[in-house]
Amino acid sequence: GLSIVPGPRVVFAPSFAVGVGDVFHKVRGGHISARSTLVVTGRDVELHDLDLDGTLIVRAVPGARVKIKGLKVRNRGWSIEPLKGGGSRAPEELRVRGYQLVKYEQRVLDFSEPGDFQCSE
User: Fold this and answer.
1) Model pTM greater than 0.70?
2) What CA–CA distances, in Å, run from 6 to 3, 49, 70, 80, 90?
3) HEC profile of the chain
4) pLDDT tens-digit map of 34-46
């Protein structure tokens, strides 16, 4: 298999950002640890000074305007792990990859109604 240098996994859905300019406008400051995973879906989501060590999923429906300010998230998160036993019994898509994504724990912020929201725990 290939060796990789682990780093944070960040997924911005097209509804959140279609280019780097969108990201610069919507994400300001903060810290994401190398083992973290961040998934953001929603047009009107802003992240200010997020402190993430683990996994955070943010979902916002159209019309939900969400500002996340100074939020600190700590959890076990998701982990990329080698296949057990060499992977001989794993599904083909995992054998090709040589690893599996194990979802231990995550925090989900689900904004399922339109409106203005702020999250700053």
Assistant:
1) yes
2) 9, 23, 25, 9, 23
3) CCCCCCCCEEEECCCCCCCHHHHHHHEECCEECCCCEEEEECCCEEEECCEEECEEEEEECCCEEEEEECCEEECCCEEEEECHHHHCCCCHHHHHHCEEEEECCCEEEEECCCEEEEECC
4) 999 999 999 999 9
Alpha-carbon distances of 96 from 12, 72, 84, 86, 87, rounded to whole Å: 25, 36, 14, 12, 10
- Other C-beta atoms lying within 10 Å of the C-beta of residue 25: 11
